[in-house]
Amino acid sequence: MNVWLGMVVLLVLLWSMKAGVKPGLGLHLVGATLFTLSFGPELAFVGLSLVAAGVTVNEGVGYFAYAANALLLAGGGVLLSHGLFRLLSRLLPRHFFVYIFVNGFLGAALTILGLGALVTFVLGISGVYAWDYLASEYFPYFMLLAFAEAWLSGMILTLFVVYRPDWVSSFDDSSYLLGK
To answer: Which domain holds residue 53?
Structure first.
């Protein structure tokens, strides 16, 4: 429980440090893959929803922003991350390096790219910004953000798996290390 709460506080700090293109077009690290692989999709969604609540209260942006962040970033992030983990675990062999590099690094990057596409789509459909502006001035930044998210999530997940494997619920020593 201490690790889960610590990750919530850490992610509130990470979500508070964001860059933006224009109002409503913020960019920040999400941490959905790390949270999902460490605690499972249910606790990850609750934790990321608490992170969204913390950022909403801290910045005073309103309840609609909380609902949008919780639905898109928490719900979408956990859904994409857990779906990728299940798909990749089914397709690829159970090996330590496959878990770290594919699920940790690549999964985080693909999750951020998927979230970027989802947020861009929602902003475009709602008519907040023009499609061409979103496609040329907003979505390309998610490719840079995907690299940072992959690096940070992959490195933290590697440290967790090596030094504290009991902190990662999706990692099982007997299936990833035994007999390899």
So the answer is: 2-12+27-176
Q: List pLDDT tens digits, range 41-81.
A: 999 999 999 999 998 888 777 788 888 889 999 999 999 99
Is 70 exceeded by the pLDDT of residue 180?
A: no
Q: 113 lies in a domain?
A: yes
Domain of residue 157, CATH code: 1.10.1760.20
Residue 71 located in a structural domain: yes
Q: What is the pTM of this model?
A: 0.90
Which residue do the tokens 């619920």 mark? Answer: 169
Considering its fold, how many domains does the chain have in total? 1
Instruction: Judge whether 20 lies within some domain.
Output: no
Model confidence pLDDT, tens digit, residues 10-38 = 999 888 887 777 777 778 888 899 999 99
pLDDT per residue over 65-75, tens digit each? 888 889 999 99
